[in-house]
Specification:
This protein is an alpha+beta fold. The protein has 15 helices and 22 strands. Strands 5, 6, 7, 8, 9, 10, 11, 12, 13 and 14 form a 10-stranded antiparallel sheet that branches. A hairpin with a 3-residue loop joins strand 18 and strand 19. The chain is flat and about 80 Å long. It starts with 7 loop residues before the first helix and ends in a 17-residue tail after the last strand. 38% of the residues are buried.
Length: 679
């Protein structure tokens, strides 16, 4: 008869004089892991042979490149169909790209009749493409050609006219790397020696489980910080424009056109074939998941029949000239899901997407503007786009989308161009837009959206009411009665009067508003914005490596061969842990202190209710500690709690809810027979 080994939690309880069983299962490992405490990080063990070979290769590559060599790092040809591979080496090549691309800004004044947009400009970069010569990136100039005619619409102008602000196709081209560079952070540093590097599981997240045509080299360059990862992805979407320049000069200000002359640049995110498979394998409902629409003779119509969208029905509408809009591709496409999750981490707000498939020679939607920042990724075929600036100040960065417009409602376009496969078009909220296909090609594009209801005004909507509640409790002046006769000099009917009583009334309002600001709970309002974000956001998809180091893939399982449960694990005091994603949880203090998270959310918008975990104030301090230390790992025993028992209990609770991951997979407890505990 074997004797069961005491768990770490049992030992801790005995040590602290508390042998009561709280009734919580405690899966933990007896594996000893390195401790990271502040800046005191022990040197890693000697790297294996594969790691030494990799470091040797990196040193050779560093010598080959030099400090400011004109040569570019070798590009693996297997990256050509990889959506995330676009950003690699971008930071190292950015200096050379700036010299060769010669960015310019075209002043497209909106005219004297629109003073608020009189300084509007459209960001472009001279047209270039790149070729692979001897394994190196070589920039070569390339002239862009004009596209063919359009059905029912005049072709784009071949010259830019300053009076209307119209931009020609050739003027609106933006150079990009035709072959995909490797993904790289904007702050690229020199390769570190093995002694300066953390373990592979600490630095790296293997994304090859979801990246199309993934290359193992990804695992050595992807950041361990989910927000930084999102930044890398966003950089690859807008490149060769730098992220800094985009947010300084373009974001919420003007459109951006990136013409890459590389038809495969956006491959892998989605395809028409994938749409067909989704229709065949998933229960897609008209009006809920998919729309079939048309726009003919200035009339926009939706043709959705009731019920399920069977493939034959959808393709019949398509053959009749209807556009197909898939409303929630992230529910069915793992690649779109992963993209949006990375972008929501980076932008700190919900990221959404629609897929638009339009047959040749047709248009599906009327001119309109949206309440989101839109990034149009052209995947297949080509489409003519016309973009118009906001017509007045009320339409600049609007809170809500517009109704459909007619041709008589539209000003002259600031952009009239044809997007081809691999191109990108960005336009801010409030920019009216419409798109139609050419006679000779269909179009498939993915529109990615961010920034919906994520403004200063939305924050103040949560901040001001609560500030007033607090101020009225604390400030006696806010509780004093209004003047007896104030209705005789205040109101719209008296707004043009300047009597002393009215002036005193307005002065009092101003003084009270100043006092109100001192009671504004800004941090609490930001937490409420974060809570709404978690309710709206997608759950994070986990890689195989992450599953092995979290409750999603580690721990007890059924052993069919031996007909029992095996694989019991335990968190030890020395186990190193961290939050699984930077933006996956938030500590919010309301009537009680709760940890809100999005791990249980559905892949469809508000498809499942978000969950929260109530914690006491002492546990809240430990959760704050984990949030502040991300992306670093910390040991369970360093959590700021009263004793080891409470530290292990909190770590177990967060681990079992899927919110924590360990630096290394936990080892099963040796010699324990799980089936013997319950008879």
């Amino acid at each position: 008869m074997s004797v069961r080994k005491k768990s770490a939690l049992e030992v801790a309880r005995e040590k602290n004089g508390n042998a009561d069983d709280p009734g919580r299962k405690t899966p933990v490992s007896n594996q000893t892991l390195r401790i990271i405490n502040g800046a005191n990080t022990p040197a890693p063990s000697k790297p294996p042979d594969d790691e030494r070979k990799k470091q040797s290769s990196l040193k050779k590559l560093k010598k080959l490149l030099g400090s400011h060599s004109k040569k570019k790092p070798p590009l693996d040809s297997s990256f050509v169909n990889d959506p995330l591979a676009k950003g690699k080496h971008l930071a190292k090549n950015e200096g050379a790209l700036k010299k060769s691309s010669s960015a310019k800004t075209l002043n497209l004044a909106g005219g004297a009749g629109n003073p608020i947009r009189s300084s509007l400009s459209f960001q472009t970069v001279k047209d270039q493409s790149s070729s692979i010569i001897g394994g190196r990136m070589a920039m070569v100039s390339k002239q862009s050609g004009q596209n063919g005619g359009l059905k029912r619409l005049p072709p784009p102008s071949t010259s830019r006219t300053s009076s209307s602000g119209q931009l020609s196709d050739s003027e609106g081209s933006c150079a990009a790397l035709a072959k995909r560079p490797r993904l790289s952070s904007t702050n690229t540093s020199e390769p570190k020696s093995p002694q300066d590097q953390k373990t592979e599981s600490d630095k790296v997240k293997d994304l090859s489980w979801w990246i199309p045509s993934a290359n193992p080299f990804h695992s050595s360059v992807v950041s361990n910080d989910s927000m930084e990862e999102g930044g890398m992805l966003f950089h690859s979407i807008i490149q060769p424009v730098s992220v800094t320049k985009f947010f300084r000069e373009i974001w919420e200000k003007k459109p951006l056109l990136v013409r890459r002359h590389n038809t495969g640049y956006n491959d892998g995110w989605f395809s028409t074939s994938e749409l067909d498979q989704i229709l065949r394998n998933e229960k897609i409902m008209f009006g809920e998941n998919i729309d079939v629409v048309s726009y003919i003779n200035n009339k926009r119509e939706t043709h959705n029949p009731p019920g399920r969208a069977f493939p034959a029905v959808v393709w019949d509408f398509y053959q009749q000239g209807c556009s197909v809009r898939l409303l929630n591709p992230q529910t069915y496409s793992r690649n779109v899901w992963q993209m949006l999750c990375m972008l929501q981490e980076y932008f700190g707000c919900m990221a959404g997407a629609n897929v638009y498939l339009t047959p040749a020679g047709s248009q599906g939607f009327a001119p309109h503007y949206d309440d989101i920042e839109a990034f149009v990724l052209q995947i297949e075929g080509k489409k003519r786009w016309r973009v118009y600036e906001p017509r007045d100040e009320s339409e600049v960065l609007p809170r809500f989308s517009s109704p459909n417009f007619t041709a008589a409602d539209l000003p002259a376009p600031v952009l009239d161009t044809v997007l081809e496969s691999g191109d990108l078009l960005y336009f801010p909220r409030g920019y009216i837009h419409q798109g139609c296909t050419m006679d000779d090609a269909h179009s498939l594009h993915l529109t990615v959206s961010v920034g919906q209801k994520n403004t200063w005004g939305d924050l103040l909507e949560k901040l001001v009411p609560r500030a007033l509640e607090i101020a009225m409790e604390e400030e006696v002046d806010l509780r004093r009665s209004l003047p007896r006769d104030y209705l005789s000099y205040m109101g719209v009917a008296f707004s043009d009067q300047t009597c002393p009583n009215r002036q005193n009334f307005l002065r009092t309002i101003e003084q009270l508003m100043v006092k109100l600001l001192s009671y504004a709970p800004v941090d609490a309002a930001c937490d409420q914005m974060a809570k709404r974000f978690l309710e709206d956001s997608l759950p994070p998809p986990l890689s195989d490596a992450e599953k092995e180091r979290s409750i999603s893939g580690d721990g007890e399982r059924w052993d069919g061969r031996h007909q029992k449960v095996t694989g019991s694990i335990e968190l030890e005091p020395e186990t190193e842990i961290k939050i699984i994603r930077r933006g996956c949880l938030r500590l919010v203090s309301e009537e009680k202190v709760c940890v809100y998270h999005n791990l249980d959310n559905a892949r469809v918008y508000h498809g499942a209710q978000s969950h929260c975990i109530e914690v006491n104030p002492e546990e809240a301090e430990a959760v704050e500690y984990l949030l502040r230390r991300y992306p670093d790992y910390v040991t369970v025993e360093t959590l700021p709690l009263e004793n080891l028992t409470k530290k292990i209990e909190l770590a177990n609770m967060l681990y079992e809810r899927g919110l924590l991951m360990t630096r290394e997979p936990l080892e099963p407890i040796e010699g324990e027979d799980s089936s013997s505990e319950c008879q």
